[in-house]
Write a structure and sequence with these properties.
121 residues, alpha+beta, Aminopeptidase, six-stranded mixed sheet, globular
């Protein structure tokens, strides 16, 4: 079964059993406070273990207050003008302690090192 891409409160969201998650792909003009609640409801209705969100830093407050953590950030992700954040909220304990989490952290570390090398040759 494939994940579905839907519009939720005006934002583009992907969700499905393949990854047992809700993924906020593009917040567009959705109001963060309302969207946080809608994402949680969608995850709860489907029994997903994680919510993942890619958002501009300027819209992060509602997500942080709702218990999301920063997994990564990227300079200039939004038209070169604003830092983008990759946030996650784990709804099931087993998702937070995935065995491959250490691999993901290693990949992120390598990416940050590469970014530093390219920014400061």
């Amino acid at each position: 079964m494939h994940d579905k891409t839907i519009t939720l409160d005006g934002a583009v969201v992907q969700h499905g059993d393949n990854n047992s998650r809700v993924y906020l792909m593009d917040i567009k003009d959705a109001h963060p406070d309302t969207l946080v609640e809608s994402l949680a409801a969608l995850a709860d209705e489907n029994g997903y273990g994680k919510i993942f969100a890619k958002i501009p830093k300027s819209k992060a407050d509602a997500f942080m207050k709702a218990g999301y953590g920063v997994e990564a950030s990227a300079y200039g992700l939004y038209g070169g003008t604003e830092r983008g954040l990759f946030l996650s909220k784990y709804l099931k304990a087993e998702r937070e302690s995935e065995e491959s989490l250490y691999t993901y952290q290693d990949v992120l570390s390598l990416a940050y090192e590469k970014e530093e090398i390219e920014l400061h040759p």
